[in-house]
## 1
Amino acid sequence: MHLHEPTRREQRREQTFAEIVTTSRALIGEGEDLSLRAVAARMGVTAPALYRYVASYQELVDLVAFEVDRLATEGFAAAADALPADDLAGRLVVGVCAFRRWALSAPREFGMVFANPVAESPCTRRELLTLASSGIFFTDLIRLLWERERFALPRLEDLPDTVRAAVLDPLIPAKVDDIAAEDRGLVWIMMQGWSRLYGVVALEVFGHLDPRVVESGEMFVDVMTSALPLLGLDHEQERLDALMRAELARS
Amino acid sequence: MHLHEPTRREQRREQTFAEIVTTSRALIGEGEDLSLRAVAARMGVTAPALYRYVASYQELVDLVAFEVDRLATEGFAAAADALPADDLAGRLVVGVCAFRRWALSAPREFGMVFANPVAESPCTRRELLTLASSGIFFTDLIRLLWERERFALPRLEDLPDTVRAAVLDPLIPAKVDDIAAEDRGLVWIMMQGWSRLYGVVALEVFGHLDPRVVESGEMFVDVMTSALPLLGLDHEQERLDALMRAELARS
DNA sequence: CGATGAACGTTTACGCCGTTTACGGTTTAC
DNA sequence: GTAAACCGTAAACGGCGTAAACGTTCATCG
């Protein structure tokens, strides 16, 4: 066995595979619900044909969820690019606001990515946990911020045992290899930040909060603001608060 | 038209209606998925017959969700009853821990109640928002706590406009009529607490967090502990922290 | 009392779904 | 050139929500 450059067949396979995903995304983007038959029909193909590419409906969902997350993250990054590259805190704020905007404008997509059954094998789970594009986007921003600002981290020996174990051999979407073992308190901070962000956005998306509060975004502001000290950003609170409210005003 | 005492027919109707709900709950409790046909079969009836009682599948889901929430709340209340009636803070801590235990042990039920489509009419929505048993349980505990302790509330004039409007004419599951207008800052505290609780539990249930951290409950402890000052419970932090960890140790 | 009409359940049917099986045609590889 | 791998089809199975038509039961009222 030697290495192949991609043969014609492999190219074609890759291509229809991609078409399956994009067609799926188009479907849900138009408010239809995702189904093998609908995707097949739109591709001018019969449903069982898709089984040459996908093992099951659930696998298709996972695939599309990953792609949806990837595309959404491109949007977050683009939004953050409106700020200078060295304004890491600002980019983070703009990024989380873009995340919230996306979630509220595409609740079905949000649900697909972040409220999936997740009753899958530990293996798949590990992949999903560690590969989420949006996760990497945010955690990396936090890492860069810390590398420059060196805000205070919790000391490893102050962390609960299970948390210490988790941050030393982490299972989160982040490039943790660049973080020295003694600085892994940063990973705990990433997890805390993610909890706050995910929590409040999920609450808003699923509508278990007064609609007026959702619309104004005040709960989001409240939770995010209260999380700023985690990143040693207390001193910038005013600027970031203003920035956040300006972002919320966009739609 | 005059008032009837319930006639025989109405009784029978009410009864089969209840049987539909309990049968549905039994189904999902056994890990099966909820479907009109399955419920009908288990009742020894054909599926279209159910349409005499429910207008659609979605309506059945909503109905069952409400019932599931009600039963779960009974469990929370029972757990809280392990503590003396005057230990309101302790009961609250035990209650939220029971909520988390329930959510993690019955993720499908949790999802049904708290991650529902919620794309329904404002009317239905209002009902769902204001009638959730679990919501009333927690908010009422907070109200009792405040009536005794009178911890500091945000002043109405310090709240953002939209929040002030929302707390003055609230849309949350709580007996707010007992709260004077000038004390409605308490409603905002209820919302903040609910956001924290819902957020971290949803995160854990849907598995978007390191499984080891979920299992140990440290993120839950972290979020809940950081929310204690909202209720003026800083001074009891140690006791409540110990209580919380003891509760988490239960399974 | 007997008739009337509402309430209720059945049968049948439609159109959707995921998935399996068996079968041809095409492309690749030896 | 031929054998094998690949890729699509058609047909079918069992499940789903839902609609329409049809009988049966039963409370009510003249």
## 2
Amino acid sequence: MASEAHPKARPSQTRLSSPAIGTKRAAGGDKREAILDAALELFVERGFFGTAVPEIADRAGVGAGTIYRYFESKEALVNAIYRQQKLHFANVVLDGFPRAANTRELFRQLWMRMAKFATENTNAFIFLELHHHQRYLDDESRAVENRMLDLFTGVVTQAQARGELKLGPPRLLMGLVMGAFVGVTRSCVEIDQALDSADWKLAEQCIWEAVRS
Amino acid sequence: MASEAHPKARPSQTRLSSPAIGTKRAAGGDKREAILDAALELFVERGFFGTAVPEIADRAGVGAGTIYRYFESKEALVNAIYRQQKLHFANVVLDGFPRAANTRELFRQLWMRMAKFATENTNAFIFLELHHHQRYLDDESRAVENRMLDLFTGVVTQAQARGELKLGPPRLLMGLVMGAFVGVTRSCVEIDQALDSADWKLAEQCIWEAVRS
DNA sequence: GTCTTGGGAATGAATGTTCATTCCGTGAAA
DNA sequence: TTTCACGGAATGAACATTCATTCCCAAGAC
């Protein structure tokens, strides 16, 4: 019931990156990728329940039945996307994160790495935001989420102990920062125009001043 | 197609407030209210497409057909809720708003009024957040949204001109503030515990420091 | 007072549609 | 020839909406 790889499928590997630069008919016939991409787009446009499986098939350029060769169910599909993108996000943010740096630099890195992900994968970011905490996410997907949350909570608590962040419930500060980030991202999605580097830096400076002690 | 009041219905009035303190069987038999309340709850819990009309009827304690005496369709129902709550929100935030006050006070008022609404109508606030910009909202509903947006844009631009807010795209600053507010609200919904007044004040101070020049 | 009756409110089973999922014929590869 | 990925029509379940019927009650008749 919580299987990531469908028994019938024979995926080359569970890859986490790959914007698929291949030719029209990619090597090995990457239907799986096409389905994941199409479903991501549609779930962002119409939501999970608002999207019909045959629509996904159409956009992916495959038959409706083919989806079930790769995913056990619509629910398994949305969970696969969620985990894939959440892990991708975690990679972009955490890989080689300079833990030893001072809090100011830590914060800048965090913000700019999130900005990098949100700029290069806007749809994926909105997808994660939209499906956060939904009923149809399984335990595995929630676990991925919680791991990141715990990590950040630790960082915030330590920085507070050192007097570098404002005191207050860590959840509140984190909610504030993440919320602001989402708000900024959406404000540019709504006018369909990517933020430039200067805007991201401005926003970063703003939110740093919000949380610094 | 964009009718607010359904022809067959005979609503006493289009009321915007009224938490219904009446007896069990309210005066006039307020089925309409019961339907609106039940639908609001369910749309927050499961989303628009995730909620079946008969479920709404069950929770409202009416027959499925009754819903169609008051609303033309499921879509008309969600639009009615959206407008009702958006206008309620606008009332709470804007009624007697001290426009002449200085920017710091203006901001404090804005934040605390939003906090008041979000505390007293948490479900409604989440509903508005969730259904913001959805496909099934009609032009009228969008107009309500845009009116508020324009108003705030004006306030921000003026405050920037007076050198009291950081310079930058008004949309970005507003997205940041609203996003942070939503983030703070959610952070407490997720642990199912209302924020106390001190927490709201802390958050307010944080975000003021984020946007002040 | 009791009884009757007209009409609108309310109901929930019935209807037609849409959807997730399955099934089977086809064609390419080995 | 066998195998197997594939497509898309077929299937059955769930859905939004409708409608024939019931229920309620106010107002008249007695």
